[in-house]
Amino acid sequence: APTAEELARDYLWRVHLQVPRQGEIAIFNRSHYEDVLITRVHDWIDDEECERRFRQIRAFEEMLTETGTTIVKCFLHISKAEQKRRLEDRIADPQKHWKFDMQDLAERKYWKEYQQRYEAAIAATATPACPWYIVPADSKSHRNLMVAEILADVFRKLKPSYPPPKPELAKVTVE
After folding, report:
1. What confidence tens digit (pLDDT) does each residue in 58-89 have?
2. Torsions phi, psi of 51, nearest 5?
């Protein structure tokens, strides 16, 4: 949940604070998309505000890409049956209790609404510079392979390189 500090600012502020510096990599789990998903499922914002946020998210991501950030958006799609199995595992296995939250059961009742809101968010925010990758995620090994292949393709296109050595490095002697 947003902190008081975050609530005193626009909803993208907390995300922008975490955007990686040039040359760094960051992974966001959910991120600013929560502000157009749970907020719509529970009618905390109306359709007009949601459309405004879609426009703002597209503009935010466009600004980031124009200033050198590469954005890779993956939607890890699990079936309702698989979600049920995973939740039951978390309840049954003491080593997975830490993953379980009672709120998961409450939110599960909104499965259909979440699927509709995800579909709307993906359609509204997919752009040529920031496409969405829809990854079937019932099988964790297949999911991991697909995400790894997506990221490997992105890295190949980026052609990353090490930074040049600092000039003083040539004068360093290790004794």
Report:
1. 999 999 999 999 999 999 999 999 999 999 99
2. -60, -40
Q: What does residue 133 show for φ and ψ, rounded to 5 degrees?
A: -110, 120
**In this structure, are strands 73-77 and 132-136 parallel, antiparallel, or unpaired?**
parallel
Q: Max alpha carbon distance in the chain (Å)? A: 67
User: What 3-state class would DSSP assign to 134?
Assistant: strand
- Which residue has tokens 């995400």? 147
Q: Any idea what the Cα angle at residue 120 is, between residues 118 and 126, rounded to 5°?
A: 90
- How wide is the angle at C-alpha 72 spanned by C-alphas 118 and 61, nearest 5°? 80
The string of pLDDT tens digits covering residues 162-172 is: 888 899 998 89
- CA 118, CA 48: separation in Å to the nearest integer? 17
- For residue 128, what is the DSSP state? S
| Class of residue 53 by CB neighbours under 10 A (exposed 0-12, middle 13-18, buried 19+) | buried
Strand ranges (E), 40-131:
73-77
Domains of the chain, CATH where assigned = 4-157 (3.40.50.300)
Q: 74 - beta bridge partners?
A: 133
Q: How many CA atoms lie within 13 A of 72 on its CB side?
A: 17
Tokens of 148: 């790894």
